[in-house]
Design brief:
Elements lengths: L2 E6 L4 E6 L2 E4 L9 H9 L4 E3 L3 E3 L23 E6 L4 E7 L1 H4 L4 H13 L4 H14 L8 E5 L1 H4 L23 E4 L1
Antiparallel strand pairs: 1-6, 2-3, 2-7, 4-5, 6-9, 7-8
């Protein structure tokens, strides 16, 4: 089967829909996560509560791109997850915590699958997720990207208004495996 590699920095998550269920393929870089807090403290930083856990009282993530003032303690190195795709895998949802704070993973997967089966394209599905987060009064920024995988696209009969017709690709084989690297 084909392999998917997810690289993550910050507080966004990648979720894969597999047999209608959500599986997390990345983890937020929260400064209070034990391994991240230990790394920050070892590098001379601190993790303090200021409305949320923050590195040196300012940034609410422990890994980030483009924060030079905290470069000694907030690193840009991504964590990697390797996942072997299988026929059970239906879609990927990549979204910021503004979505995940208010929409549970399994619920987001259900929305994606329902809309894809109704012929809605990836861009409109992503917009629907962002709109749902806004309706639920998300207090954080919200961005989402949806990628429909061949298994779900096989039942995808009419493209949404902003999406091209899906291309045919061979199915995936093998067992589902995810590995945090």
């Amino acid at each position: 089967g084909e392999t998917l590699v997810v690289a993550n920095v910050g507080d966004s998550h990648c979720v894969i829909a597999s047999d209608g269920r959500a599986r997390l393929l990345s983890h937020a870089h929260n400064p209070k996560r034990p391994d991240e807090e230990a790394r920050i403290v070892k590098a001379g930083g601190s993790v303090v509560w200021f409305g949320t856990w923050r590195v040196n009282g300012t940034l609410a993530v422990s890994r980030s791109l483009g924060d030079p003032s905290l470069a000694d303690v907030v690193i840009p190195e991504p964590e990697l997850t390797v996942h072997r795709l299988t026929p059970a895998d239906q879609a990927l949802i990549l979204a910021s915590d503004g979505l995940w704070d208010v929409v549970p993973y399994d619920e987001a997967v259900a929305i994606v699958i329902r809309l894809a089966r109704d012929g809605v394209g990836e861009t409109m599905i992503a917009r629907t997720l962002v709109d749902e987060a806004a309706k639920r009064k998300s207090e954080d920024n919200c961005t989402a990207v949806v990628v429909l995988l061949p298994t779900l696209k096989a039942g995808y009969t009419s493209p949404g208004p902003s999406s091209p017709a899906p291309s045919e690709r061979p199915g995936f084989g093998g067992d589902a495996q995810g590995e945090h690297v």
